[in-house]
Amino acid sequence: MKPRLSFRQIWNMNFGFLGIQFGWGLQLANMSAIYTKLGADPEHIPILWLAGPVTGLLVQPIIGAMSDRTWCKLGRRRPYFLVGAILASIALFLMPDSSALWLAATLLWILDASINISMEPFRAFVADKLNAEQRTTGFIMQSFFIGIGATMANALPLIFRNFGVTGLAANGVPLTVQYSFKIGAAMFLLCVLWTVFLSNEYPPEDMEAFEKHRAQNPGALGLLKEVFQEIPEAVREMPKTMKQLAVVQIFTWLGLFCMWMFFGLTTAYHVFKAPGPSSEIFDKATEWSGWCFAVYSIVCFIVAFMLPKLAKRFSRKLIHGVALALGGLSLLSVYFIQDPNTLQFTMIGVGIAWASILAMPYAILSAAIPPERTGVYMGVFNFFIVIPEILASVTFQPLVKHVFHNNPLYVVMLGGASLIVAALLVSTVEDSGEVVESAGSAGH
Length: 444
What we know:
By secondary structure, the chain is mostly helical. It has helices at residues 7-14, 16-37, 45-48, 51-68, 78-94, 101-129, 132-162, 175-198, 207-216, 219-236, 240-271, 280-304, 307-313, 316-332, 340-343, 347-357, 360-366, 374-381, 383-403, 408-425, 433-442.
């Protein structure tokens, strides 16, 4: 039985997520606008976003399986936190200085790969260190830090403008965005270092057996060989609950991806009526869409600590389903909004959904997978996040051009419909872990 951790210990072990989401938040709120500034048309935006899902598909299961087999002075997961943070910080620092579309797209590939190297082991880290009773709290703490990090990242450009920062860099990117990325690079690294140095890890339960197993495939090549053998095996042996959650995740993340790709452009063209990407109105709209993303992040960290109590009282499935439905209805409501101030209120439902998306599926999953395979299964679970994103990136160009006539609003609404489908599918998921948590709570 794993010991019960204090609030401070759970805080420290998840603090790195603040930095990781700072990087994600800057990317999600600004990359479509940066691409547009560098000459991309709306129909080309989906394929330019391909970096994130492809790197997630490749990197997360590999890093997860590798971290399952790693043990050194820094532990099992923390070496990956650190390497990913260093690489991501470099990419964040350079991103807004891109002089051409191809350079920005290349840096996005590097950034996404690096963020995935850091992020995947954090999910396994919670399952490693917390007993079944505290896991929901652990994942909710990650939601809390994700909310704070994204809020800071999304609000920074607007804050810089309010402090009088104006003007454009040589490549046309607003200085408010450029400065925000520089700060984000530092935040990413410092927050991950906090977790690396103020948290510890439990060694393998049977170190002798662990070392014996590792000796069978020595060195980096041996490790990779074993990893590539295990990933397809893990997919074949996927637990039933994980398969049920997979379908929910596919529709959930398709909805989120639609929002991230096109909410900024929807704000510019549908709400602010910007005449084009070179106008000052477009820049102000981009900053306002970043603020709207900050609103959903603020809601996320406010709601995050309410979710464990609500989930315990009702059920994780019910709370997650309701949260997803609220997010879907909020995105659909953008169709009726013409006022920038009103637009920010649509993000309340999205923030509730986001808080649940970041915690509930992982809390349900962690009870359904074998502990010795936590890393690889957390990585495989990421398949069901990135596969719909890859399909959207590859197939949305004709949809956006010929069906939606390059109107980004309709893509955002498609995202809302997808979240509602995900909400309905939650009812098909079996959550055996709730019985474990209830029994643990009764014992205290």
